Amino acid sequence: MKLFTYMEEYDYEQVVVCQDQESGLKAIIAIHDTTLGPALGGTRMWTYATEEAAFEDALRLAKGMTYKNAAAGLNLGGGKTVIIGDPKKDKNEAMFRAFGRFIQGLNGRYITAEDVGTTVEDMDLVYSETDYVTGVSPAFGSSGNPSPVTAYGVYVGMKAAAKKAFGSDSLKGKTVAVQGIGNVAYNMCRYLHEEGASLVVTDINQDSVQRAVNEFGAKAVDVNDIYDVEADIYSPCALGATVNDDTISRLKAGVIAGAANNQLLENRHGDVLQEKGIVYAPDYVINSGGVINVADELLGYNRDRAMKKVETIYDSIEKIFAISERDNIPTYAAANRLAEERIETMRKSRRQFLQNGMNILSRGR
Question: Could you tell me the pTM of the whole model?
Answer without folding.
Answer: 0.90
